[in-house]
């Protein structure tokens, strides 16, 4: 519901106008993680592309964008892939802050399946630091093989821990 009231549109100008009508338009100075930005790469003020902000560093905004081209070559507003892109703020012609209403996530009662394990102290410390959080059922499954996806999550949490938030 946060995106165009649950309806569908492929028109960036329609989407930007909808956010403005909802009172969710913001200035470029306010852009932060979770906001939606609208680009024009030809210098016009009409939006032709959209992205969801994951970080901002000064005049550089990093977003997840769909229907773009990899790298800096090719169509940046109709290229057919989803990519993480860093772009300059001067390319942004509008921004909005959706009213997110996250659903509450039930927290399971933790299960102690690591007591007595040879790596118990390290697992408890990693959990306390937020590096590993276990599975939704409250278990850690200490002898289960780690998948690539799980390792990617752990690596990103370590980067955030050591670099203090989003890696630049």
Largest sheet entry: 6 strands, antiparallel
**What is the CA-based Rg, rounded?**
20 Å
Could you tell me the strand content as a percent range? Answer: 15-25%
Total of domains? 2
SS elements, strand count: 6
**Overall average pLDDT:** 83
Distance between the termini: 30 Å
| Helix and strand composition category | alpha+beta
Instruction: Tell me the strand order in the biggest sheet.
Output: 1-6-2-3-4-5
Low-confidence stretches are: none
Write down the secondary-structure element order: HEEEEEEHH
Tally the helices. Answer: 3
Helix percentage range: 10-25%
Q: Write down the overall geometry.
A: elongated
Question: What would your notes on this structure say?
Answer:
The protein folds into two domains: 4-96, no CATH class; 120-163. Helices cover 21% and strands 22% of the residues. The protein has helices at residues 12-21, 120-128, 148-163, and strands spanning 25-26, 36-39, 49-57, 60-68, 81-88, 92-96. It has a six-stranded antiparallel β-sheet. The chain is elongated and about 65 Å long.
